[in-house]
Amino acid sequence: MLRSVKGFICRPLKLDHGYALHMAAKDCFSSVVSQDVQTPAEKPRAIFYTNESDPIKTFQEACVMVRKPALELFTYLKNSNFAHPVVRYVIYGERGTGKTMTLCHVVHFCARQGWLVLHIPDAHLWVKNCKELMQSSYNKERLDQPLQASFWLRNFRTTNEHFLKEIKTQQKYVWGKRDSTEQGRPLGEVVEQGLTRVKNASDAVGVVLKEIKQQCCLGSFRVLVAVDGVNALWGRTTLKKEDKSPVSPEELTLVYNLRKMVMNNWSGGAVVTTLSQTGSLFKPSSAHLPHELLGKEGFDALDPFVPILVPNYTEREFESCYHYYLHCRWLQHEKARTEDGKEELRFLSGCNPWQLERLSAPL
Amino acid sequence: MAAPTAAGLCPRLRAWLPRLTQVRWSRYNPSFLEPEVNKELYQKPFNELSEEEKEKQELKAVHPIKAAPPSISSSVFSDPMISKFTNMMMKDGNKVLARSLMAQTLENIKRKQLEKYHRAPDDEKERVECNPYVIFHQALKNCQPIIGLSNITRGGKTYQVPVPLKDNRKRFLAMKWLITECRENKHRRTLMPEKLSEELIQAFNNEGPIIKKKHVLHKMAEANRAYAHFRWW
């Protein structure tokens, strides 16, 4: 079960090189998670590519600091009534304060307890830099994203293997002239179908989300929907159709289906989301409050939600982060061990986790 | 020092110009003193200062002080060698980029060495050096040539004469070789920090192309030992 020892410390994510690093840290997180829930430890690890900033490669371990926002979320999740409609939690805060790590901590907690985890590492990746956009076969107005959908399906399959055998489809799905999934087949077949026929991957994602939503109200399993950068679902995209007209988010199948999942018209789980300005499109860098990042449409869609603020490090948290870096040999400079060095780090970073990590990287 | 050219002036004004002018000179009045950047000196109470330091403090009360250059910092983590190297890596005055490349290089060195540390068996763990600054300084020291070659013309022919090098020249040559090696002999897609960290670790272990270049220079100097008497300084 979750170890609530305060000495357990975190390395916040590096957000400077790009959001793919979020993905890697979260991918390696999912691998840590799945090691606890399932026994084969090597299999999940082999699938996720190791990025240069992978803490498992450098320190042979990946740790999270236990902080107040995460503990708050755990009490809420433990005391929530799963017969009521699902509660939405929005984690917000300034840049680099640890929102994504809090989300990862919650994902780890729920996976340890045996929930089904639908983790979208970065929703911003679905609304920008998409190489292949195809017209959806299911609905002529919508657009499919085969690459992103198949990537997500692969990660979903690795993290939730045993659920895929238990959940059965409740209706027949026809994928094409020759492919179809009968009623009562395990959900794993839908995922396989999405992975083998990449053209149907987005529709497979939609089917998976729909089935999980319908069946979790019955109460046999709990579902955690963890979305990082939920403000991407209601913003603008940088994608363009073939006639150069801009694409709005609801025209993307993945975004459309995810929006339905984040609604509070189902029960038996929780929805924990994070706002992120770093990957967001057309938002000023000073915007960090929910109203500014979500916009009117997003706020109305997510309303009512429980906001959770993640502040900068307190004195105690800064101390523990500093001592962890010393312990795992990350701070190598001789002067970094002195009081002067510590005070200088504290002043220069302003107790911001991201700044502290950036400063201590070359030291 | 350089000789000024006065191409457009009339002969009377040309006679007024001095024969040699200083190229690098300071506009400060000679009475201006250098600034003191060392924090520890200011934290010592007055009684503990030695005689000359007390005199210096009194002088400072009377004389004006020069402005501190932006490259000096009172941070405990600042290192003059690293600053010099960063300046040499800088192109078109883009210090921000040069500094970030240097930070990434040091980080890469640290990561590679930490990986090696964790992979090594317990008795060898002590020998793996993880401090990127130690590796940087040692690598530079290993790359410094001891003896250099200088061109001297005698009787129409130019000879390569072995010549002792000053400390500054040695440091400059080591840094210059390191940077040119990393800029030229790398694949188009590899980034500078990656290549630099690789070269620094190799130089730390006394292997790699820069150490070879140093040995080639030493061998040339050894081969031209006969002309050493041409040197007059």
Automatic annotation (TrEMBL), chain A:
Domain of life, per lineage: Eukaryota
Family per similarity comment: Belongs to the mitochondrion-specific ribosomal protein mS29 family.
Cell compartment(s), UniProt: Mitochondrion
PANTHER family recorded: MITOCHONDRIAL 28S RIBOSOMAL PROTEIN S29, SMALL RIBOSOMAL SUBUNIT PROTEIN MS29
Entry's Gene Ontology BP terms: apoptotic process
Main localisation: mitochondrion
The entry's keywords: Mitochondrion, Ribonucleoprotein, Ribosomal protein, Transit peptide
CC terms in the record's Gene Ontology section: mitochondrial ribosome; small ribosomal subunit
Protein's name according to its UniProt entry: Small ribosomal subunit protein mS29
Organism: Gallus gallus
InterPro entries: P-loop_NTPase (IPR027417), Ribosomal_mS29 (IPR019368), Ribosomal_mS29_met (IPR008092)
